Amino acid sequence: MRIARASAAIYGLSHSTVEITAQQWFARVHRADILRLQTEYIRAFKQRRNELVNEFRFVRPGGEVKWIEARSLIDYDGAGRAERITGVYIDVTERRKAEDHKSLLIAELDHRVKNVLACVAAVARHSREYSKSADEFIDVLNGRINALANTNALLSRSRWKGVGLGALVRTELAFWTKAKNALIEGPEIDLAAEATQPVAMVLHELATNAANYGALSSAHGRVLVRWRKSAKGRSSGKLVLEWRETGGPPVAAPNAAGFGTSMICDVIPMNWAGRCTMNLLATALVADWKYPPNG
To answer: Phi, psi at residue 16, to the nearest 5°?
Structure first.
């Protein structure tokens, strides 16, 4: 094989190298591509094709892998046997990396869309089961879908790298609270992307319940949301999130758990083997969870 001096750098060869044997060249073709490449050449020869375009990986002497696009012209002798191949080899490594990255993003987007649609379907189904009328169902479903949308907006702004817990709490409480009826405090903690959506749904249910039946339904009610990292025992390093309502109307335990209560008490333990404690006092609700902050 004769290689133009200008092309030697693609293969990691010195400019003084202009000839290598076919065996030496094929030894550098990535082993995952060599059989396919040989098959493409044999098929082209059998079909007496005059032109062949293919892509393959070439391993340079130092181990670096390059993607090569080969554009070749094939000459045949009088008996129709392939006699010579002349062509140009183009380094398309950056293009292939970009294509692979694009494919990865599309696959990730597909996965996320499917997850969101599955979540919406589950929320709609459960909201219908626990609603007493069509109007109640629409109101409840609207609120839950808006909560999902707000959380997705936060995740999108962070490029799906996670969301600060403080930002998430403030977003979910923004519609219901004013400056004087809510206290939000805690250190800077980032939730992983997979943890953000469930925590947002829990906060939405708590805020909705507080607005309809709890502290936020009263002019004198207050909500305290605070979090910290546990520093003792087996739970060291885990996140403790507390929701406390005071000054609301008298609270009575429901006869049966609805979807909101199930969401509040079950979603975090189910996903992170954490725990939920929820106490209904005379005029207050106290709930706290403990789970790993990063999934």
So the answer is: -80, -10
Kindly report the average pLDDT of the chain as a whole number. 81
Smallest CA-to-CA distance from 177 within 226, 136, 217, 145 is with 217
Tokens 């649609």 — which residue? 117
pLDDT tens digits for 58-70? 998 888 999 999 9
Give the pLDDT score at 1.
85
Checking if the pLDDT of 86 tops 60, the result is: yes
N-terminal to C-terminal alpha carbon distance within the chain: 55
The class that CATH gives domain 140-291 is: alpha beta
> Token pair for residue 216?
């936020």
Q: Where in the chain is the domain with CATH 3.30.450.20?
A: 5-91
Q: What is the pLDDT of residue 238?
A: 75
Q: Beta-carbon neighbour count of residue 33 at 10 Å?
A: 17
Question: Please, what CATH class does the domain formed by 5-91 belong to?
Answer: alpha beta
State the Cα–Cα distance between residues 111 and 131, nearest whole angstrom.
Answer: 30
289: pLDDT confidence band, cut at 50, 70 and 90? low
Report yes or no: 112 and 155 within 8 Å, Cβ to Cβ. Answer: no
CATH 3.30.565.10 in the chain is located at: 140-291
Cβ neighbours around 143 below 10 Å, total:
18
